Amino acid sequence: MKVGSSVLSGGPGKLDPAAVRRLANEVSALKKRGDEVLVVSSGAILSGWQRLGLSERPKTTVAKQAAAAVGQSRLMRVWEAAFARRAVTAAQVLLTQEDLRQRHRYLNARNTLFELLRLGVVPVINENDTVAVDEIKFGDNDVLSALVAGLSDADRLILLTDQEGLYTADPRKDSSARFIDRVRASETLPFEVGGAGPLGSGGMASKVRAARMAAAAGIEAVITSGGKAGALTAAADGKSQGTVFEPKTRGIGQRGRWLAFASHPRGRIVVDDGAKVALVERDKSLLPSGVRQVEDAFEAGDVVSLVCRGTEFARGLTNYGAGELERIRGLKTSQIEAALGHKPADEVVHKDNLVVL
Hints:
The chain has helices spanning 5-8, 17-32, 44-52, 61-84, 97-101, 103-118, 141-151, 204-216, 231-236, 254-262, 273-281, 322-328, 336-340; strands at residues 2-3, 39-41, 90-95, 122-127, 156-161, 166-167, 179-180, 182-183, 220-225, 243-245, 267-271, 291-295, 303-308, 311-317, 354-356. By secondary structure, the protein is of the alpha/beta class. The protein folds into two domains: 2-256, Acetylglutamate kinase-like (Carbamate kinase), CATH 3.40.1160.10; 265-356, Archaeosine Trna-guanine Transglycosylase, Chain: A, domain 4 (Roll), CATH 2.30.130. An eight-stranded mixed β-sheet has the order 3-4-2-1-5-9-10-8, with helices on both faces. Strands 12-11-13-14-15 form a five-stranded mixed β-sheet, sandwiched between helices. A two-stranded antiparallel sheet has the order 6-7. Mean pLDDT is 90; it is low at 196-200.
């Protein structure tokens, strides 16, 4: 479950403990019947904004960090108190994108979440706004929730917001806006989705992006109103009145999820049309013969973007550094050892370490 600041707000600069208690009660009821629930909660900046007595939401990164530093402990106290009423233990988990870009840290986060669930604890997750900067921020907790859903092998991602779901336009401004109850995995939306709201950094556009990410990983995503009692339970039961994003029938595997959504490519490998067809349509590995250009400095084992005609279409772990690849690009695999004096692998990127975007 991801809950935004707009759902937890009791007005500008005010965190509403009653909203937190209502959601904690629903989460506790789901746990009691055997479900495992992870909570991604915004509200640190909102809570700090309140405590600092600011007249409006902070706008600069450093002001947001200061508000989050004050507000995060206050936010967590409210969640802990709400869960304690139902004899449920909550745990604070703070993440930055850098924690998930590196494979070993991604796996550490995954293992920690699994252990918390095994112990019957509800993880309450937020971005570590106090130390995150523009270069490593998720940008909003919607994207963070999609990444968490992927790394925890969730069955469903529920995005709670201040609207019923996805509309063709903002229903608060356009009376002709039409509600969208279902989005197929391969469906292209025939309209532009709006941006951030006044209380948070997300907005419907980021929720749609997060839902798409989850669906690509084979996880059903739901965007629904968090202001209604029972909305979380209905979504968990597949009976939501919100917008459901259908998952791909063959979702991306765990390593592919990390490569596609969390990893940070260190360089780019430009390939020819034939190599792209082999990778995308025939599930083949990338060989040196298909490489046309090497961009940026990267080492063997780094994540790289695979590009054809200017567009990134895949990501993978390279078996060769940029310098070595520059010397063998365009060659057949039988020519690698003669060119380098050794041959670490036949493939530049093996198909098992590659994901098509």
